[in-house]
């Protein structure tokens, strides 16, 4: 095991030495696949990702129904989780912020906004902000809800990321982290064959780059098991923390209340 793997509790793409180089490698990786990210996502997940985003958005319906609530979708990428929140909130719902540190991913989100939200309804268009989840440009106690879909696992420092989320949440505010997990039993066996053998090959073929789709199963394997992640959430300052498995535990929603 390399020194970086022992010191950093977070994503460690191949060759990364520390938090800074791991973050840069993650950003470069997503920037390199940004043009084909959506297509690959839907093909490789058989479109189940859409169900997961919508289920997560439904979980927070009561916050999204408050027009003056402040909502942040962290690691928003090309914006699909943000758009699911938008749909759940409806036209009169609160203004949404989507934040990501890859400019190319945000550009895709911006151009999708034009198709997804009517130009007559400018206030429904999310704000897209280039920001690092480990050092957010927002004041303390600002948001009622922070979500992150399939992004948190890529942070180079999980505890640092959780502390930032707690910092920007209002007391009583909620956080929803949707991410992959490793299912157990027969489903787990089939899933591992697909995730480790099939997905990296198909991903590399369709995207033209090998790294990101080899990194994906590795990052899921390194991500803490639900019980450990819940302990980390409590240590970071969440009063309540729960995990709900989605689709046999292939993914799941971590929910925390400050
Ligand atoms: C797998 S994509 C998920 C995108 C989107 N949320 C979705 O569900 O499709 C992960 C995203 O996390 C972003 N990301 C990773 N680390 C980040 C960090 N430290 N700060 C901000 N964004 C980050 C990447 O740039 C990428 O767009």
Could you describe the 3D structure shown?
It is globular, with a radius of gyration of 17 Å. The relative contact order is 0.15. It has eleven helices and seven strands. The protein is of the alpha/beta class and 258 residues long. The chain has a seven-stranded mixed beta sheet, with helices on both faces. The structure holds S-adenosylmethionine. S-adenosylmethionine binds at residues 23, 26-27, 30, 41, 75-77, 80-81, 100-102, 105, 132-134, 149-151, 154-155.
Helical residues, percent: 40-55%
Poorly predicted residue ranges? 1-6
User: What is the number of E strands?
Assistant: 7
Strand content: 15-25%
* Cα radius of gyration in angstroms: 17 Å
What is the helix tally? 11
């Amino acid at each position: 095991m390399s020194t970086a793997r022992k010191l950093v509790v977070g994503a460690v793409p191949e060759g990364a030495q520390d938090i800074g180089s791991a973050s840069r490698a993650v950003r470069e990786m997503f920037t390199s696949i940004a043009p084909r990210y959506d297509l690959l996502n839907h093909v490789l997940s058989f479109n189940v990702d859409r169900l997961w985003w919508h289920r997560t958005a439904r979980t927070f319906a009561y916050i999204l129904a408050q027009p003056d609530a402040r909502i942040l979708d962290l690691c928003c990428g090309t914006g699909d989780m943000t758009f699911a929140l938008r749909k759940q909130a409806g036209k009169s719902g609160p203004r949404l912020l989507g934040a990501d540190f890859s400019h190319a991913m945000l550009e895709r989100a911006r151009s999708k906004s034009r198709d997804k939200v009517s130009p007559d309804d400018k206030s429904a268009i999310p704000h897209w902000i280039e920001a690092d989840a480990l050092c957010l440009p927002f004041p303390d106690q600002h948001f009622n809800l922070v979500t992150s879909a399939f992004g948190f696992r890529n942070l180079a420092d999980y505890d640092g990321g959780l502390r930032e989320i707690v910092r920007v949440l209002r007391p009583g505010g909620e956080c929803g982290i949707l991410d992959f997990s490793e299912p157990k039993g027969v489903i787990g066996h089939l899933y591992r064959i697909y995730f480790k053998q099939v997905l990296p090959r198909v991903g590399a073929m369709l995207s033209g780059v090998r790294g990101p789709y080899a990194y994906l199963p590795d990052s899921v394997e390194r991500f803490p098991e639900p019980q450990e992640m819940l302990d980390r959430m409590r240590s970071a300052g969440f009063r309540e923390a729960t995990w709900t498995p989605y689709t046999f535990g292939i993914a799941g929603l971590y929910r925390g209340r400050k």
